[in-house]
Every structure is written in structure tokens, then in C-alpha cells.
Specification:
mainly alpha; 3 domains; 0% strand; flat
Length: 185
């Protein structure tokens, strides 16, 4: 299981590097989508299907929007920049981050150990013990999302709504500009 997760993370990193390094915008968008889908698969292996479903939904929507925004436009490839100092700095930063990641990974608890076993006053224990009595919701996930953390959920929904509204506004404005150009022709 750990090997599969490591392979997914390595593939995600490779796709992210391709997304940053490729001069073709469409290839970068597709690579970015691959990163998101690989992370969704990793969430499934980690036992977080709810996060994986949200990740897949966000990836599909953002991929459609980004592909739509890049196809049909005259996008010139950026000329590759070669610089020894930039390469050395980049490799050094990646190396330091990798060492930091390995060090943090070594301090993780055993896979599958519960938070409630490590911390006696974990919020999850309080939610499970008092959730039904305080909220009346038999599903503890619903109780946490809509009662204990209702403002957080409202904030997340507001951010998502504003992001979608912004994308629709930008795409609609581009469509109006294109329609006005066709009318003038």
C-alpha cells in the first residue's frame, strides 16, 4: 500500500514538473489535470472517498474550463530559458523539500492508528460522544458539517460559488467580445 501511494505521489510530482516545464499551454493544462486525478486516487487509497470525490469534481470542472480557455486561442510557446544558476537553485530547493518531507514522514504515526488513541481530548471523540445528543442528527458527518462547523461549511460554499461565478463572468465577457467583433465584420 505504501509503495502504491509513493508511486502515485512520484507520478504527481512528475506531472507537476511537466506542467511547469512544457512550453505548450494545452500540455500544461493536461498535466495539471493528471496531478489532480492522481491525488484523487491517492485519497481513495488513504480511505478518504469524500475528499477524492470532491477532488475529482473540482478537477473535471477546472479541466473543462482551462481546456476551453486554451483551445482556439493563438498561444505562442514561451522560449525555453537556460540558466545554470536557476537550475542549481531549483534542484537545491527540491532536494531540501524532499529531505524535509522524508523527515516529516518519519514522524507520522503508524498507518491506520486513530487520532482518538493518541489524544484523549481529540475533537473527534467529543463529536462521537455528544454528537447525537447535541444535534439530533444520527449521521455524525452531517452533525459536524451542519452544526458544529456550520460557518466553516458556509464559507467553503461561498468561496466555491464566487469562484464559479468569476469563471462564468470571464468566459461570458470573452464570448460577448467575440460576438461584438463578428457583428462589426
Amino acid at each position: 500500500m505504501i509503495e502504491i501511494l509513493a508511486a502515485l505521489i512520484v507520478l504527481s510530482i512528475i506531472a507537476a514538473v511537466i506542467a511547469v516545464a512544457t512550453p505548450n499551454i494545452l500540455h500544461a493544462v493536461i498535466s495539471l489535470g493528471a496531478v489532480g486525478f492522481l491525488l484523487a486516487i491517492a485519497f481513495l487509497f488513504l480511505g478518504a472517498p469524500d475528499v477524492a470525490i470532491v477532488q475529482i469534481g473540482v478537477e473535471i470542472i477546472s479541466l473543462v474550463i482551462l481546456v476551453r480557455a486554451t483551445i482556439g486561442r493563438k498561444v505562442e510557446a514561451t522560449p525555453p530559458r537556460a540558466g545554470v544558476i536557476g537550475t542549481v537553485v531549483g534542484v537545491t530547493l527540491v532536494g531540501v523539500m524532499a529531505l524535509f518531507g522524508v523527515r516529516v514522514f518519519n514522524h507520522f504515526p503508524a498507518f491506520g492508528s486513530s487520532v482518538m488513541e493518541r489524544f484523549a481530548d481529540a475533537p473527534s471523540a467529543a463529536y462521537l460522544n455528544t454528537g447525537l445528543a447535541e444535534t439530533g442528527a444520527p449521521n455524525i458527518v452531517t452533525a459536524v458539517l451542519l452544526d458544529f462547523r456550520a460557518f466553516d461549511t458556509l464559507g467553503e460554499a461561498t468561496v466555491l460559488f464566487c469562484a464559479v461565478l468569476g469563471v462564468v463572468t470571464v468566459l461570458r465577457r470573452k464570448a460577448k467580445v467575440d460576438a461584438d467583433k463578428e457583428d462589426q465584420s
